[in-house]
């Protein structure tokens, strides 16, 4: 590929259009070395790899503006004419520097090249103001502290200036989206980070968090009776809520307190262990609206097939994550989810790791006597030897995956002109769970991002919709899109009050979910070849972290997984080694920890940008 992260990547708008075109055309990878089989000697055999990526299907994009008027419009920015993809500014800078070089380059994301492109003089004010705070691992509170005293007070967001744009959204032309395309960082996979999840713990432990900034998700929303409502989560939210009666507030607080310590009271749920969580909720003294909030917006589980224990566990996890970094359980990485794999690539590069772009692999070379893989052959006919090989599922051929049964994820990405729930503050990161219309279908997770998350241009919102697939992505998700948004450019009728947000552009696609496939399901793989999956359909990142650690421990059982890198002053160099200041590998000041707490022995913390911080 021409970009980092595979199906975890983020794209500028023009980069996403190129990705869409490539997946709609589905061209085979070019095989530059046709006689690579001659490199396989007598005691070896080759396991051919797939020449076509089949993880993305049913890609459909729609423009709800005047697309013809944007034909001659180019994306603004010095690198707009760089050929190929641009998952973010970091990649496009790398591609620009590599232009004219050999057809295959070794590259790693560089923070230095990324920041100047993403922050320019025309940066919207929202990029440096809003609901951001500085937090580290020392800001932790006891699990569920948000039900009592929060370690952090609820975030106070600044109200947007009162003007006509709050009532009448600004008209955004498609040509303007194209021109401001570098303002967008559009994720292929939509996820949030639980503040006490495995990924946050790993980012802190490894100190990779120094390479990224994060924002709190500011709102948990629910869709009920055709309306979008805000869900109260913490004690302060519950008792400040105007949509709940005083009796409902006491009911909700009593149940949430029980969920935090449900394992100590098995007598209250053991009779319902074989029932669904929805059935269990109906036996508690909860009103229908409270049951809806808990099921779809707090536990965020299926109404049909989630057991009572799984529902209680999900609710407890939600509550334990409250109050660590803000008033909701979630964090979002600024510039998109695609920043996370790039951050790990940066740390890898510091210690000599190489990430090769535009570098195809033809086959695995297996020794017939030992049965182990000993090398790969690339598209130049070059053999690269190693002791271990980690292969992403999409590279395996159909003959290797004969017995594999894949699930699919339905995805949609929308660019809209206003939020699904307008408030005084325009800068909101929201998560909304929409219950299924038809029985047996999954709920749809909706994540709405504002411009201060650095994922879209000013006066627009980026909306991600995700659910496990039952049909094509458009068939699964368009009914939900029609409920929440306008899909045409005509003015709203008088009966529609308040006005729905207008969709300016949309894309639907299905993505393969290979997260549940065991290694034994793949045919004929050597024992030293490990398979990792693409993204799963869950909201968090626990599956990927568990998978990475499992593979690492199988290869190196005596080693620590992702230990914190040593401080430069603690490194003792041998006589034949070169100190960092004498070598070509360096980290710019922008990548250094911004506070002493991030350099602590605990591995640092999560930095969430303050209002007064400069790029």
3D structure, described in words:
This protein is an alpha+beta fold and 615 residues long. It has a domain at 1-25 and 54-67 and 171-207 and 216-233 and 333-355 and 393-546: Guanine Nucleotide Dissociation Inhibitor, domain 2 (2-Layer Sandwich), CATH 3.30.519.10. The chain is 22% helix and 17% strand. It contains 13 helices and 21 strands. The protein has helices at residues 13-25, 89-98, 111-118, 174-179, 198-206, 235-240, 246-260, 277-283, 288-298, 308-321, 339-350, 473-484, 542-555, and strands at residues 10-11, 44-48, 56-63, 105-107, 186-187, 193-194, 214-216, 219-224, 227-230, 330-333, 355-357, 361-367, 373-378, 383-385, 389-392, 407-416, 430-434, 444-449, 461-468, 503-513, 529-532. The protein has an eight-stranded mixed beta sheet with strand order 3-20-16-19-18-17-8-9, sandwiched between helices. A hairpin with a 5-residue loop joins strand 12 (361-367) and strand 13. Residues 78-135, 141-166, 580-604 and 610-615 have low confidence and may be disordered.
Please tag this protein with its features.
four-stranded antiparallel sheet, Guanine Nucleotide Dissociation Inhibitor, domain 2, disordered C terminus, 615 residues, alpha+beta
- At the fold tier of CATH, the topology name of the domain at 1-25 and 54-67 and 171-207 and 216-233 and 333-355 and 393-546 is Guanine Nucleotide Dissociation Inhibitor, domain 2
CATH architecture of the domain at 1-25 and 54-67 and 171-207 and 216-233 and 333-355 and 393-546: 2-Layer Sandwich
Backbone shape? globular
Instruction: Let me know the average pLDDT.
Output: 79
Distance between the termini: 30 Å
Helix amount:
10-25%
Number of helices: 13
Strand adjacency order, main sheet: 3-20-16-19-18-17-8-9
Catalogue the unreliable spans.
78-135, 141-166, 580-604, 610-615
| Relative strand content | 15-25%
In terms of structural class, how would the helical and strand content be classed? alpha+beta
Largest sheet composition: 8 strands, mixed
Q: What's the β-strand tally?
A: 21
Please write the CATH class name of the domain at 1-25 and 54-67 and 171-207 and 216-233 and 333-355 and 393-546.
Alpha Beta
Radius of gyration computed on alpha carbons: 25 Å
**Oligomeric grouping of the chains:** single chain
For CATH, the homologous superfamily of the domain at 1-25 and 54-67 and 171-207 and 216-233 and 333-355 and 393-546 is named as: Guanine Nucleotide Dissociation Inhibitor, domain 2
Keywords: Cytoplasm, GTPase activation, Transferase
GO cellular component, one term: nucleus
Family: Belongs to the Rab GDI family.
Biased composition (Low complexity): 89-98
